[in-house]
Structure formats: C-alpha cells, structure tokens
Amino acid sequence: MRNLANRAPMLTRTGTKARWLADLPPVASDSLLALIALAEADPRNDKIDVGVGVFRDAVGNTPILKVMKEAERRLLETQATKAYLGSAGDKRFAELLRPILLGPHASDERIAGVQTPGGCGALRLGFELAAEANPNARVLVGTPTWPNHPPIIRSVRLEQIDYPYYERGQGIIRFEDMIAALEGAEPGDIALLHGCCHNPTGADLSEDQWREVVRVVSERGLLPLIDIAYQGFGRGLDEDAFGVRLMLDACDEVIIAQSCDKNFSVYRDRVGCLFVKTGSKGATETAMAHVFQRARVMWSMPPDHGAAAVHIILDDKQLRAEWLIELAAMRDRINAVRQRIAGGDPRLAFIGRQYGMFSMLPLSKEQVLKLREDDAIYMADSGRFNVVGLGDDQIDRFIAAVVEAMDS
Ligand code: LMR
Hints:
Layout: H1 31-41, E1 48-49, H2 66-78, H3 91-102, E2 111-117, H4 118-133, E3 138-143, H5 149-155, E4 159-164, E5 166-167, E6 172-173, H6 175-183, E7 190-194, H7 207-220, E8 223-228, H8 237-240, H9 242-250, E9 254-259, E10 271-277, H10 281-298, H11 305-314, H12 317-342, E11 358-360, H13 365-375, E12 377-378, E13 384-386, H14 395-407
Parallel strand pairs: 1-12, 3-4, 3-7, 7-8, 8-9
Antiparallel strand pairs: 2-10, 5-6, 9-10, 11-13
(2S)-2-hydroxybutanedioic acid (LMR) binds next to loops.
C-alpha cells in the first residue's frame, strides 16, 4: 500500500458515470413470497392457501409442537447467557443430527457438520464451498426444482445445466433423461439432488433409481450436493435418508444441506445444518475452515434459539421419543390427505404415489389464476400445491374445483 501520509488521496475517476440507489432496476418479486401476501390479503372466508410449504393440521393451523414448547420452556429457565457461540454455532446440535441423517455414517470422522440459518443457509454455504473448490464446476439441475435453487447457484457464479426431471402430464420421473444428463457431465460437476419429498413435484426416486443415480454420480466423479429439507415427512426418518446414506457409501466427497424447519415445525426460527464429507479427516478440516470463513462473511454466526431447542429435544430420551410421535402424526396427515385427493379423480391418482408436502397439478397458468380468482384457491403458478395446506373440511371443495379446472 502506498504511503499517502499528509496528502489527500486522488480519488477522481474519469469516464465513470455516478450510479445511485435510485438507478437500481426493478426486481421481479419472488413468486412464492408474493403468493403468501396475495393469499393473506384475500378477504374471502372460504379461501384455501396451498401456496407456501407449511404443515397445517386438520383445522388449518400450524401448531408449535408440544415437544418444542417444552424445550423452549426449559431453555427459558436454564439459558444463562446469549453470548456468541462462534461461526460453528451449537456444535452439539450438529452432533445430535448425525445419527438421524447419516445413520451408519454418523461416526465417520471424514464428515463434519455446521449449524446454519435454515436449509437455505446450508445450501448457500454448500454451494459457496463447492464454487470455491472448483469455480468451473457446472451444476446439473433436474427441472422443475425449488425456485430458490437457481438464484443461489447464480449467486456463487456457477453455471447451471438443466435437464428434465418430471413429466407433469403423467406424474412420473423422466429417469432416462436424468441418467443421460448425469452421464454427460464432466468429473467435478455438481449434481444437485433432492434427498426426499421432492419440491415441487413430490416425485421421489425409488430405491432402485437411487442406486442407479449413485452409481453414475460416483463413476462419473461428480460432486453430489443433496438438499434434504423434509426428512420424516415422506416414508420415515430412515427411509427418507436412503439416498443420502447410499451416496455416502459410494462417494468420498458429498455435500448435504439439511433443514429442521419442517420436521421440528420451527419454520421462522431457521434451523439447518450443512454436512461436508471429503476423502480424509484432514481434507474435511480444511474444507470446514473455508466453510467457517464463508459463514463469517455471510451471517457471522448462526441464530441460536431454534437450534438450541432442537438440541434439548434430541438430547433428552423422553422428548426425543415424543418428537418422533409428533413427526409421525404430521407424516400420517400428509399421506392421508394425499390418499383422499388421489381418490377424488383418476387423473389425480398420481398424488397418492408421491411423498412430502408438494405435488404439481396438471394445470396451465391460466387455470391456476382462474382458481385463484373464482374459487379463492391459492397455489403457485406452476401448479405446485401444498397438499397439507388443506384443512380436512377443504379437501372436497379443493378436489371439485381442481377437477372442474382440468375439464375447462
Ligand atoms: C417452499 O418451497 O414453499 C418452502 O421451502 C418455503 C420457501 O422458502 O420457498
């Protein structure tokens, strides 16, 4: 650095037009967030909001889990300080998640985890790490995908390559296209995969399909980045982690973005975890040093409250057992609503074969908008709807309106 002591530095730049905040271009609003606001603003009493992915019970509420209330009570009574915990956040929280997500890999020292603000924070951090390691990597994305995936990939300046994942008319996965895309990728490219409860389609890979995907990913030398935000909402905690664990069996390098926001029903508290596996303990330590550095410049240290409560639940045998019961009740409701809708019309039968909160209806954007205007039914323009956004007494009206829209 030059020493400019006692002299004002020359800051003049020629040929550069000043730009101001007022020069910023308009931004197309995030469609899901806009949908929440639209549904909220609708004054009709019988409106149905199946937009954003939030679990609702039979009467349309998103209650705080009983175990969460108890954990928060204990937290209130026992928490003695809110001093910083550091970039890694609550280390015990990440440790307690290991057996739930990683299963037999829980004790693998080549896998490290770090608390993040929600699954979205984990995704961003995972992509930051992948881009830092290999800025030339391309990201293979099956479409449709969660609408926030592409902007996150753009934010880390990686190139995105799309392939078709889902055949909406038939409600099936375009598995041959998926395999062809993965087989055509270069070593070091990133395969973005949904661990379970595919968002937005609900169409999960079968165990045989996972075996095939894992084989191609490992043979081609791709870096799998698995987004798993709904573990326990599909078939069960272990069943939903099948793909994650199989990938860990086969690959030395794996990135996993995990979320507790849904399965602990702590959406607004933003509770997630990033897991990173490399081929050696030393390489993982180095990778995690990069992770902490990236976290430091993005959020410095993760928010504590939700993770601290999840920590209390998972560290207490009784609370943990009660959480499993509450989680099973949420899963059972999701699957029961699925079966009711599937039974409503043969064209909706595919919904009964899918998992998690979402499915995608074979509706055009115009039909979706008409449902919004005529029937006060709010779903994403893509036809994605939150199965469990429906209260029990709304299901029949929803089916009737959707069937009418499909016939129109
Ligand atoms: C959703 O897809 O509805 C949720 O993951 C919420 C979100 O942030 O988009």
